Amino acid sequence: MHRTIVVTLTAGAAVSLSGLLVARGTAGPPPAAPTFAKDVAPILYKHCTGCHRPGEIGPFSLLTYESARPHAADIRDEVRDGTMPPWNADPHVGTFANDRRLTPAEKDVIERWADAGAPRGDDTDLPPAPSYTTGWSIGAPDAVVSMPEAFDVPAQGTIAYQYFEIPTNFTEDRWIQAMEVRPGARRVVHHVLVYCREPAGGTPRPRVLVPRIDLAPPQAIAAPNPNATGTSAPRHALGTLIATTAPGTNAMVFPAGAALLIRAGAVLTFQVHYTASGEAASDRSSIGFVFAKSPPADEIRSGNFVNGRFVIPAGAASYQVDSEVGFSDDVHVWGLFPHTHLRGTRWEYHLVYPDGRSEAILSVPRYDFNWQTYYMFATPLAVPKGSKIQASAWYDNSAANRSNPDPTVDVRWGDQTWEEMQYTAITYTVDSPHSGAPAQSASGGGQ
To answer: Which CATH number fits domain 137-198+239-296: 2.40.50.140, 2.60.40.10, 3.20.20.70, 2.60.120.230?
Structure first.
């Protein structure tokens, strides 16, 4: 016995089914491949040409189709695996003003463009190329302070950290809106740290950062390597770290209403880490300043906290070193700069409130010595008096770490890259004691 099954469709359902069958049978053409002019150039101009342009750290320029096209496959691969643009922070912890990551849609455009053979497109679709002041990303500086003389970097060997004292020659206090460190010979300069020492007799600023325990290294400056060229001993105290340049760092630009104070008569000290490149070079590095147009509402301050009394055992694959800093006043934390050397693998930072609550504020699960970053919060973190920031760094001193200079030795604090550091720079402002506004949690400040 056969049963007949009758299906009754409403008019609307019938139309929908008919439309579905037609759609399946008449699929439209695939979307056109992205072109450089219309789709790719806007992404490169926004995210990449700050470094990938003539005279900068990028190995090739991305300002034109002619310079970008030969590297299309490499660009795609670097974007696909997250290597470029360099950004090593966990996207689920913290929100940062200088986040360099591409969106999924931007990554898709780059990948489809390269896979399609990197078509040029119509040049009339090109957006205006970004305008850069030659040599400076902050625009033309109001003042430039340079090393007094060039330093000759040998072609071979290890060069001890060099220290160069340079007077600012400022005859009045200056509020700094932006600052940028420029290596004179980028291929041999790994990093430059700029310290500022104020003249004696000035009004000292109240101490706000309070190391919880004495974790300073045994010496402010490590003993020089007897096999290194030059000397690593500064003649005076360094002062406060105010600016850096290293692969991955940005120029420091503060928003309107916030600026860094450099007092009249201040002296800068450049700590420069040179690396021999196989060819002799001459370097004369500089720092440029853009002055604020008026005194700011908030004074940007710089400081640091470290743990310098660690010993990382030979062969240890995941060794943890902790440090922490407390706050004796209500502050806002603007940014954190984690720093280790070749054995450092990751960092974690937690803000602990006076009532014991703890919040993750920065996680760097893929720390890379070759791409160091000052992580600037999109909204400064409100930190009430009595809070503390706890920092943990992990190190791989095993043979599995291909960057490890020597897995057979215990490792201690030291300037050179075969030694180690557990160092955090911190940028912050102190709240007005007369504001009366209660500090809010980090989760309410852009997290």
So the answer is: 2.60.120.230
The CATH-assigned architecture of domain 206-215+297-447 is Sandwich (2.60)
Q: With a cut of 50, which residues of the chain have pLDDT below it?
A: 1-25, 219-231, 434-447
What HEC string does the chain produce? CCCCCCCCCCHHHHHHHHHHHHHHHCCCCCCCCCCHHHHHHHHHHHHCCCCCCCCCCCCCCCCCHHHHHHHHHHHHHHHHCCCCCCCCCCCCCCCECCCCCCCHHHHHHHHHHHHCCCCCCCHHHCCCCCCCECCECCCCCCEEEECCCCEEECCCCCECCEEEEEECCCCCCEEEEEEEEECCCHHHEEEEEEEEECCCCCCCCCCCEEECCCCCCCCCCCCCCCCCECCCCCCCCCCEEEEEECCCCCCEECCCCEEEEECCCCEEEEEEEECCCCCCEEECCEEEEEECCCCCCEEEEEEEEECCCCCECCCCCCEEEEEEEEECCCEEEEEEEEECCCCEEEEEEEEECCCCCEEEEEEECCCCCCCCCCEEEEEEEEECCCCEEEEEEEECCCCCCCCCCCCCCCECECCCCCCECCEEEEEEEECCCCCCCCCCCHHHCCC
CATH 2.60.120.230 boundaries in the chain = 137-198+239-296, 206-215+297-447
Return the pLDDT at 447: 26
Whether this prediction's pTM lies above 0.70 is answered by yes
pLDDT digits (tens, 9 = 90+) for 357-399: 999 999 999 999 888 888 999 999 999 999 999 999 999 999 9
